[in-house]
Amino acid sequence: MIRYGKSSGALLAHKKGFFAENDGLLNEGRRIGAVYTQQPRRTDCKCCDAPLEGPRFTKQGIEYVLCGRCGHLNGAHEDTDAFCEAMYVQDGGASYAKTYSSADKDAYRARVRDIYVPKAEFLRDALSEAGETPETLRFADLGAGSGYFVAAMRDVGWPHSHGYEVSDVQVALAQAMISEDAVKAHALDAAAEIAGTVEADVVSMIGVLEHVQNPRDIVAALRSNPNVRYFYISVPLFSPSTMIECAFPEVFQRQLSAGHTHLYTEGSIDWMCREFGLSRLSEWWFGTDMVDFYRSVAVELERNPETAALAGYWREMIVPALDEAQLALDTRKTASEVHLLMRFAD
Q1: What is the Cα–Cα distance from 316 to 327, expressed in whole angstroms?
Q2: Per-residue pLDDT tens digits for 249-261
């Protein structure tokens, strides 16, 4: 099962802060980037573990390398304990959680409904397509954040779904918005242990695999876990959004910045599947490249008093065409994101 495209309306409604708070978000990304560049140089590919050699470029003062073996886009520095502590754990992860939390229950529920329920519905449809009866399966969400996907899974018929998360701030929000058993906190170094022992038929990592220190260890642990049969992920991709960010350095960098120190490609996803015995069952390709392009031009127009009057015209010209333009990228699998349901080999 392969799907392409998704309406941008919900994203525009929920991400207004990306426009209004551009400078603050940009500066926070630069602060985190400065921490990242102080870490030791990376010597091996984060995906295939080969010596890191290949084409290079620099963005926001950070060097990136496309692995010559698997095609994975790597940041040139290590995701050390110190970096991950600064990114996700210090102050309970409050600075990171700001981008991903909702202020009240109505806003939280709206985000679940508009953004995460479609992801859960796709998972349900994909499992049915694979011959499963989804409501009989056990589900666990690793890197559950504020619990949005756990809430969505419960909404579509899996009341015992639960998640695991390192940020105390986000765990507290999930427990307040859903229930005390929705998301459990764990130490930063416990992720692989949980992956190897969790009692679930389906494990999801929605926008998470790119954040963990050692994604290879996580996938290997899941493969060794006799309970886990299916692995559902969404990951950011090396796509036009990356080039847009390079062309607009004064606009908030959403795709390749801060916790996104590396990006997947078709090649690196295929490598992961071959190495760890994963079969790709269902795929949903959709991105926000055109929204990023719209936002980047809009921010620059509004920033300059001489062009601010054009911002409204830009919005009227481009917003009605966003979904059609993005679909052209999605169907070519050059989008900024993909959702994949995979099955571990018996």
Answers
A1: 19
A2: 999 999 999 789 9
By residue count, the chain amounts to: 346
Per-residue pLDDT tens digits for 165-206 = 999 999 999 999 999 889 999 998 899 999 999 999 999 999
At 134, list the tokens: 């989804």
Q: Could you give the CA distance from residue 18 to residue 22 in angstroms, rounded to a whole number?
A: 6
Task: State the Cα–Cα distance between residues 292 and 18, nearest whole angstrom.
Answer: 10
Query: Would you say 146 and 101 are in contact if contact means Cβ atoms under 8 Å apart?
Result: yes
- The alpha carbon dihedral of 280, 284, 290, 293 has a sign of negative
Two structure tokens written together for 167: 């940020």
Q: What CA–CA distance (Å, rounded) separates 194 from 128?
A: 26
Which amino acid is located at 150 in the chain? V
Q: CA 170 to CA 96: how far, in whole Å?
A: 9
Give the mean pLDDT of 221-247. Answer: 97
Strand pairing class (230-236; 183-185): unpaired
Please report the sign of the dihedral spanned by the C-alpha atoms of residue 328, residue 70, residue 277, residue 238.
Answer: negative
Q: 12-16, 132-136, 282-286: lowest mean pLDDT where? A: 12-16
Give the whole-angstrom CA distance, residue 79 versus residue 87. 10
Lowest-confidence region among 90-104, 213-227, 234-248, 323-337: 90-104
Q: Is 100 helix (H, G, I), strand (E, B) or coil?
A: helix
Half-sphere exposure of 292 (CA within 13 A, CB side): 25
**Do residues 209 and 216 touch, judged by C-beta distance below 8 A?**
no
Exposure of 216 in the CB half-sphere (CA atoms within 13 A): 12
CA distance linking residue 70 with residue 275, whole number of Å: 11
Looking at this protein, which amino acid is placed at residue 260?
H
Cβ(234)–Cβ(241) under 8 Å? no
